[in-house]
Fold each of these.
Amino acid sequence: MPDLDAHTLQVLDALNKAVAEALDRKRKLGQYAVFWRDGEIVYEGPDAPDLSDHSSKKTSR
């Protein structure tokens, strides 16, 4: 990663914190989350849609 200035690092930190908080809130509410992983859409969570007949994956945490 290239050297980033202090402002850019603050922005990245704020974005990472916001995403972590949103994912934690979804987990606590029992809602699934959607990720892009290894070139595929991945649904994670107990209520994630079952897309076993599609190229997307369903996983549970």
Amino acid sequence: MVVTVLVIARSRNLFGVIVLAGVYSFLMSTVLVAMDAVDVAMTEAAVGAGVSTVLFLGALHLCRSEEAKPVHKPWLPLAVAVSVGGLLVYGTLGLPAFSDPMAPIHTHVAPRYLKEMKQEIDIPNAVTAVLASYRGYDTLGETTVVFTAGAGVIALLRRRRKDRKP
């Protein structure tokens, strides 16, 4: 994944960047599967590699295939990106270790869902129960955001026809 990101950062060919971004999404999907987050992995593969790649290729069709070289060195955006990345890494230092059995999610939330799911909503699949019932409004909001973004991109990429006079 790191090699893919480095090649993307150095490339000026936008078609190659789009294809490599799709490859990165598939690689990220495999990492998510390895972390037992299959539902998130499927979403990453569908949205990150599938829909995003198609929309970017559509946008590329409407513009040039080579990125213009910047007139100056982008030191300020680089400094901001490195600072934000550093803050994100610092923020993760207080989290419990990955797969720690004593993490709050494993001692409070997950046991409650697994114990009371049958009585509360009677959905046999735990992931479906959490996404469709316990987090139903959140899932509806995420779906609305993805749909609105897709509709907006389609509206922007749509070519307008010149009015014909009869």
